[in-house]
Amino acid sequence: MLLSTLGWNPNSARYFQQYRKQGLIPARVAGEHKHVYLLYSERGELCGQVSGRIRHNARSPHDFPAVGDWVALQLQPGQTQATIQTILPRASRLVRQVSSGRFPERIVAANVDTVFLVHSLDQNVNLRRVEQCLTLAWESGANPVIVLSKADLCPNVQARVADIETVAFGLPIHPISTLTNQGMDQLRPYLGSGQTVACLGPTGVGKSTLIQKLVGNPAPTGETPGENRNGGDQPIIPCQLFPLPDGGVLIDSSDLRALLSADQEETFEDVEALAAMCRFRDCTHQREPGCAVRRALEDGQLNYARFKSYLRHHREAQTLGVEQDDRRNERRREAEKLKQERLIRTSRRMKEQDAE
Ligand SMILES: Nc1nc2c(ncn2[C@@H]2O[C@H](COP(=O)(O)OP(=O)(O)OP(=O)(O)O)[C@@H](O)[C@H]2O)c(=O)[nH]1
Ligand SMILES: [Mg+2]
Ligand SMILES: [Zn+2]
């Protein structure tokens, strides 16, 4: 697997030298399931988990790898799982709000150059929804492009395009059909070697079908879990990042239900019930006297793996509460800055056009 086709460039390679010296290798995150990551590296497809240090220092879900991230891997001889030691700085990140649960925001995709905002022409396009998706894309640092799918099912494509133009601020709009191939050629220019394109949009609009079509055979879909990798007991990780035959990658950013993995919805009522019986209210269940959780662990009433999982989620949830507002403000500032830069660029372009 050539890293350059996945978007690895001379700049990234230069930046990575510090990690090479430590014997680490670069890889791109292609999927995640229950904290196990599917990774594309120069050694091929690997599975990996984050290092204890990353987990320990994590202040929010943003400190964990996301699909599209570049990471530095440690690969021990004889080991089937790699350890993710570092997440490289993100050039852009698509963030989406999650309405329920402990995690109000998730990075849907990182290091994205172009976002295909996919909406279907077979139903009334909801302009509010298009606007919401646009905002999300603007804030990410990636360039949005509007893709209107299922043109074959729409008798008046031009009228619908005109509707959407009213909210699109002059962005490119491409009506397409994966069935008749209408408009598919217009998407090629976004997909060159080294380019990362993420498909984002409501469920059922045809994102996976589009990716399948562009990637060609063998046809993957974001919904089909991969085969067992590295043989036997490896977990099944759904792949979301697909290299194209002529270079570049497509990210299937799936929809909300896939974003909330079962792991995150997990509750820990059993452990919490035990914790309520600890002598101290702020018991960390490490060494405190009168710790009911420790006692349950010792007499086998509580499974150790489950306790570890509880600790991990507890820590993530706790730090998240504190960090949340900070991060919101930070994101707001970033978005504001990006918007300003875009405005400046647009006005400069208009001035140039006037001058011509
Ligand atoms: N007529 C027509 N149907 C299409 C086209 N593209 C996709 N479909 C159909 O639309 C349905 C949904 O397509 P998917 O690709 O699974 O949609 P998705 O956006 O990936 O949906 P989620 O994974 O749920 O977010 C499937 O039955 C496709 O066959 C198209 O261009 N024309
Ligand atoms: Mg899909
Ligand atoms: Zn305790």
| Overall outline | globular
Q: Please provide the count of β strands.
A: 13
* Total domain modules: 3
- Percent helix range: 25-40%
What are the distinct ligands in this entry? Answer: guanosine-5'-triphosphate, magnesium ion, zinc ion
Structural class, judged by helices and strands? alpha/beta
Relevant CATH superfamily of the largest domain: P-loop containing nucleotide triphosphate hydrolases
Count of helix runs: 10
- How many angstroms does the end-to-end distance come to? 46 Å
- Looking at CATH, which topology of the largest domain would you report? Rossmann fold
Compute the CA-based radius of gyration: 23 Å
Order of the strands making up the biggest sheet: 10-9-8-11-13-12
CATH class of the largest domain: Alpha Beta
Following the backbone from N to C, one meets helices and strands in this order, namely HEEEHEEEEEHEHEEHEEHHHHH
Calculate the mean pLDDT score and round it: 81
Task: Characterize the structure shown.
This protein is α/β, with parallel strands linked by helices. The chain has 3 domains: 85 residues, Beta Barrel (OB fold (Dihydrolipoamide Acetyltransferase, E2P)), CATH 2.40.50; 166 residues, P-loop containing nucleotide triphosphate hydrolases (Rossmann fold), CATH 3.40.50; 66 residues, Ribonucleotide Reductase Protein R1, domain 1, CATH 1.10.40.50. The protein has 10 helices and 13 strands. Strand 6 and strand 7 form a beta hairpin. It is globular, with a radius of gyration of 23 Å. About 7% of the residues have low confidence. The structure holds guanosine-5'-triphosphate, magnesium ion and zinc ion. The site of guanosine-5'-triphosphate (GTP) has 17 residues, from helix 5.
